[in-house]
Design brief:
Elements: H1 3-19, H2 23-37, H3 41-45, E1 48-50, H4 62-71, E2 74-82, E3 85-90, E4 97-99, E5 105-107, E6 122-126, E7 129-130, E8 136-137, H5 143-147, E9 161-165, E10 186-188, E11 193-195, H6 196-203
Parallel strand pairs: 1-2, 1-6, 6-9, 9-10
Antiparallel strand pairs: 2-3, 4-5, 7-8, 10-11
Length: 204
Amino acid sequence: MTLDDQRKTLRAELRARRTALVASDRIAAANGVAGQLEQLADFLVDRRIAGYWAIDGELPLHIVVTNLTRRGQQYCLPRITGPRQLSFVEWHSGMELESNRYGIPEPVCTEDDLLAASDIDIVLLPLLGFDRRGHRIGYGGGYYDATFSFLREREQASRPLLIGIGYAAQQVDAIEAAAWDVNLDFVVTESELIDCRKASQDDS
């Protein structure tokens, strides 16, 4: 079985896990993730935090956004601006949105509003699955890996920090990395803040 075939099978399994979560689990997880993120000192003070508009059962970030707004931090959403490339736009409640080619809401903006990936301090990434070493399974489009490819060879923490957001049920024992993958620095679930860099060092 090729790596592509393995990932296709794993995506189907992980979608089923996420779909099986009931509404009360999702609400509890949204609260839990917001609390876990508050344990990360950088998250409390960094200026620009990018996230996502939750679709298809992804863990919602509305509580996180409320907390950021209360502290005066900027919350940014991604916008597709090229082949497998994302830029980011500061977003606030009430700002106009439009659906992209995948049906995902994006902020309506001018070119002057666009922020490069390197302008962001922390990125909260949606995922289908993860392991504790920071390997992530997404939807297969490769947008995040391509956008943050400049981080691939980093040997220590650098900006932006990449934080995967998901339910604990989305954890798997190990995900085989592809050459183009960009590892996560942290994963946050409703029950845990996982330092993936430390986990990788412990395994080595």
